Task: inverse folding
């Protein structure tokens, strides 16, 4: 397995396993994942549908517990944290970008970006200033008062990216962020994520089944049947 060159590891998975019981059948979604990701890296987790990549992302993002093994975030184990601790980790340390945006339809773009900061208890003026800055960064400041159904798919995903960045997360997790977009719009979204990764030194972990999208990252973890089959450095 290819290791990061530096020593500033922000995410580490150690012999990570996850099993589910479906009826009377045991399904091994992850069968022993070992990986290290450095601060500021942009990496892709690529594999076919059902290979375990979203399960891995959910465990890294503290949305799910592993059956066994460890996940370390900045050297601190989060895989055995309490529900309360995991909620705090999700609120402060992780930004999520989903395939279907998950924006609240009754809120404007600006209000959707402000929402994570409202939940985190940030002051109104601080929320507004940060949300305006982020919408400008993703090129949507002039659409700030539009609700999701008044935006295109690409615009909705840009709002979702801004929202994910709202609380200055340690890591940004993107689960098939281009899966609901046409090719041209999808590539524009990846270009934006690459720019944020570069200019903000924002650690980004991207799940995709699309090789063209994965190739935009620095490293690709190829997963098959719950195991890392290879790690590819992208030139």
Result:
């Amino acid at each position: 397995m290819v290791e990061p060159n530096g020593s500033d590891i922000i995410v580490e998975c150690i012999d990570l396993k996850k099993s589910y019981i479906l009826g009377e059948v045991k399904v091994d979604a992850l069968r022993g994942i070992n990986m290290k990701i450095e601060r500021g890296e942009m990496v892709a987790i690529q594999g076919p549908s059902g290979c375990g990549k979203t399960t891995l992302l959910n465990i890294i993002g503290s949305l799910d517990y592993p059956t066994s093994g460890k996940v370390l975030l900045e050297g601190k184990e989060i895989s055995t944290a309490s529900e309360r601790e995991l909620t705090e980790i999700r609120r402060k340390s992780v930004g999520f970008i989903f395939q279907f945006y998950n924006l609240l339809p009754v809120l404007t773009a600006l209000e959707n970006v402000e929402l994570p900061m409202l939940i985190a208890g940030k002051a109104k003026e601080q929320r507004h200033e940060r949300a305006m800055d982020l919408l400008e960064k993703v090129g949507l400041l002039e659409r700030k008062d539009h609700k999701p159904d008044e935006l295109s798919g690409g615009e909705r995903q840009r709002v979702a990216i801004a929202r994910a960045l709202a609380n200055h997360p340690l890591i940004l997790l993107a689960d098939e962020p281009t899966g609901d977009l046409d090719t041209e719009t999808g590539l524009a979204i990846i270009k934006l994520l690459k720019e944020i990764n570069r200019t903000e030194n924002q650690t980004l972990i991207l799940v995709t089944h699309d090789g063209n999208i994965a190739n935009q990252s620095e490293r690709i973890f190829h997963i098959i049947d719950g195991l890392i089959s290879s790690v590819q450095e992208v030139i």
User: Anything to note?
Assistant: Residues 183-200 form the longest helix (18 residues).
